[in-house]
Write a structure and sequence with these properties.
five-stranded mixed β-sheet, 36% helix, 234 residues, alpha/beta, four-stranded parallel β-sheet
Length: 234
């Protein structure tokens, strides 16, 4: 598989900057496009801890590295604006985002096409802490932030969605109110039931339960689980 420019863009957008307005605009656009994002917070433009490397070894194909920040490295104040959470063994919610430490060094390496494609973060001993590949943007201005192509062409490389506790709590509250109402109505109907009469209310309760809860769960959640997109009428 040849890693062309678009594949690098699809894999991850890596932003190195001081967390200004341009960084925020660019990161928001990338997240809205559903792509992976990593941000490395520096002190200012042209931070001396950030260096660049152009290596021409005659290779015709680029390489790809993926060693994102560990959870122990924490989350930068900038990344917290986008609900980023530290990486765990099973999950990673929100974009990757760390603040470059005083003893850290960040090296931006260019790919075979002459564009920045790789980021490596090391400590004072030269031990590699982070190593990632993607579309690298260093100290973007507002024009770049508003016009850079951030869409993901290969949908298989979109970031996965995860559930939100906010909506889970709302759903639990709705279910509690509905179940109490359904049970109360069922008790009332059952007490008035007489032998020989068709218990029509039981089918009514089942139909209401399906329309209010089961239909949404079976169509919306199944569509997201199987295809990653919302259910349609087609």
């Amino acid at each position: 598989m040849v890693l062309d420019d678009q594949r690098f863009k699809d894999h991850c957008l890596i932003v190195v900057g001081c967390g200004g307005k341009a960084d925020e605009v660019l990161c928001k656009r990338r997240l809205q496009a559903g792509g992976r994002l990593a941000h490395f917070l520096t002190r200012c433009p042209e931070d001396p801890r950030v260096t660049f490397s152009i290596t021409d070894d005659g290779s015709q194909h680029d390489f790809f590295t993926w060693q994102p920040p560990k959870g122990s490295m924490g989350i930068s104040s900038f990344a917290k604006r986008f609900q980023a959470k530290p990486r765990t063994f099973w999950t990673k919610n929100g974009p990757d985002g760390i603040e470059l430490g005083e003893d850290h060094r960040l090296l931006v390496r260019y790919g075979t096409t002459g564009k920045p494609r790789h980021v490596t973060v090391t400590d004072e001993k030269g031990i590699v802490l982070v190593e990632m590949s993607g579309q690298v943007v260093v100290d973007p201005d507002i024009y770049t932030a508003e016009t850079l192509q951030v869409d993901v062409h290969n949908t298989e490389l979109n970031a996965f969605g995860s559930f939100s506790w906010r909506f889970v709590r709302v759903a639990l509250l709705f279910q509690l109110v509905w179940q109490i109402g359904k049970i109360s109505l069922s008790i009332n109907f059952e007490m008035d039931a007489t032998s020989g009469r068709v218990p029509w209310f039981r089918n009514l309760m089942a139909a209401l339960n399906w329309c209010l809860t089961g239909n949404i769960i079976c169509t919306e959640m199944t569509a997201f689980a199987l295809t990653g997109t919302q259910a349609t009428i087609n």
